[in-house]
Amino acid sequence: MPGQRNLSRRSAPVGAMHRTPQEDTPDDIERVNSAVAPFRLDRNSMTVLDRELGRILKRERDAAAAKSGGGDDAESALGSIRADEEMEFHWRRRLLRFLHHRSVHTAMTSLLILDLLAVVISLELQIQMSSKESMAKEACLTAYKTGAAVPAHFLNSSACNPGGLGACDYTQQASYQAVHGIHIAELALAYISICILTLFLVENIMMMAAIGWFFFHHFF
């Protein structure tokens, strides 16, 4: 009828309003993992090991088959190669699980915070050392200007020290005496920082041993 609207062309199919979500295909999962892998290296490290193991076994299988020409010899060689590779990846998996353990992460984070505190405190101690040394030198300069003392190299000179004044050595000032203790504390903090950085280096070396050259994969 002319007064009725034609809704047949505007109405959507019934099935389109109730679409079921499509499951992710292996290719989709692979693309997602490749995209987010640089940001979650810890979660994908086991997957990286599995992929590396598969590639190595395939390469060694092809090499053994080409060398032996097929048959039982190739299968025997492949079995030996598989056992060696799985033994190697067994300790690498255990090492990776140890490095990714919550307690290890907590300890390394605590060491990082401790190292930052040591660096900040060390910088503050260096500022205090410079300030106290300047105060000691300023005290001796004031004594020279007022005629209360003379420099140490003028002490035995009658021309430069006719009044027989005493010498002023800034290293003997009270403000300078604290510099030695501050310097020892600053050295102790420096050694602590070196030890912490050494532990970080050992952790990274262990991680490289566990996941191989894929350790640098997230940089590129």
UniProtKB/TrEMBL annotation:
Residues 1-32 are annotated as: Disordered. It is a multi-pass membrane protein. Its main location: membrane. Keywords: Cell membrane, Ion channel, Ion transport, Membrane, Transmembrane, Transmembrane helix, Transport, Voltage-gated channel. GO terms for molecular function: voltage-gated proton channel activity. The chain crosses the membrane at residues 103-123, 188-216. It is found in: Cell membrane. GO terms for cellular component: monoatomic ion channel complex; plasma membrane. PANTHER family: F20B24.22, VOLTAGE-GATED HYDROGEN CHANNEL 1. This is Uncharacterized protein. The lineage of its organism: Eukaryota, Viridiplantae, Chlorophyta, core chlorophytes, Chlorodendrophyceae.
